[in-house]
Amino acid sequence: MPNETLINQINAQYEQYTQQHKAAVALQTSFKAVLTNQNKTQKALAEYRAQNTGTDVSSAQDAFASLRLKEETIDPLLPDLRRELKSLAVLTGALKDTAAALRSEPVDVVRLDKAITVLQTASQQDVLDMLPELNGELALAQRILGDEFGQKLRTALADLESASADAHRSLNWVVLNWKPISANALSRCVTAKIWSCLMRRSPLKRRSSLPETPPRPLWTQPERPGLDQPAFRGV
Questions:
Q1: Residues 83, 86, 88, 90: is their CA dihedral positive or negative?
Q2: Do 144 and 109 touch, CB atoms closer than 8 A?
Q3: Predicted local distance difference test score (pLDDT) of residue 233
Q4: Residue 144 falls inside a structural domain
Q5: Mean pLDDT, range 125-142, rounded to an integer
């Protein structure tokens, strides 16, 4: 029976860290949007000033040019933000696999073992506090799987032993009921067996009852009357 209390705790942590991952993704996207909009604004101010309109936008251009958002604000945050995104993605994936492995019947031991290995590298304390209970569930699942495998193995060996006993009894019956046969009978049996094998490997073609017509040559030399043939006589 699945440990519903532990599974609910894992699901709660999964939802929590999924929301953190979404917030980090939104912040990274907003940083990119700020830089893009700043560049667009500076370009628009330059094009507006180039048209020689009455409004002076030079001060605005200077203000936007002095804003070093990328160099002073965004670039220092991006490396930590990327590492956090990567770790949160790995953590949420491991939590999802852990809950799925515990819900399966029987428990997916391989999947649970891999997920616990990933969770052991996490830096979140609430995840680390959950590891002893997860290791206990893994040990219990491995013991149940070993008992089930042992039972199936014993059943298979018993069936094999029963089949071997039946074969032994059949062999004993053949030995007890064996009757010697003559050498001629044995020779005839062997000869018949060999002949049947040869016929099966290279079957003989049946000959037709009608005589075969020899093939007509492509060119024949006209016959000349010889000594044994009468010469043609005209009228």
A1: negative
A2: no
A3: 47
A4: no
A5: 90
